[in-house]
Amino acid sequence: MQRLEAELATPGSAARLVAAVGLSDDKQLSRAFEGVLSVIDSGGLTRVDLEVATELAVEEPSAAVECLIALQVFDVGTDGNFVPEQLLVRCWPHRA
Fold first, then answer.
1. Distance (Å, rounded) from C-alpha 63 to C-alpha 60?
2. Where are the extended beta strands (E) located within the chain?
3. C-alpha torsion sign, points 96, 74, 53, 57
4. Residue range 49-65, pLDDT digits in tens
C-alpha cells in the first residue's frame, strides 16, 4: 500500500488514476464531480444534496449523479450519505 501511495504522489500517476476512473474523458462528469467537491465539507451528502451540488455544473444533474455513483467515486457511509473517495480526491488536482 505504501508503494502505491508513493507512486500516486507523482502528478503523472495521479492523473492516470483519475483517467482510469473515467472522469478525465467526460467533461460533464468532471464538472459534476467538481461541483460536489466544491460544496462538501467533512461530512457526506445525501443523494438529493449530490444533485443540488451538480445542478449548476451540468444540464442533467440526476443522470450525472447516477454515472458518478456507477463509477464508484463515492464511499457510502453507514448513514447512507455519499463521501467522495479520498484517494480520488487527493489525485483530483493532478487530472489532465
1. 6
2. 74-76, 82-84
3. positive
4. 999 999 989 999 999 99
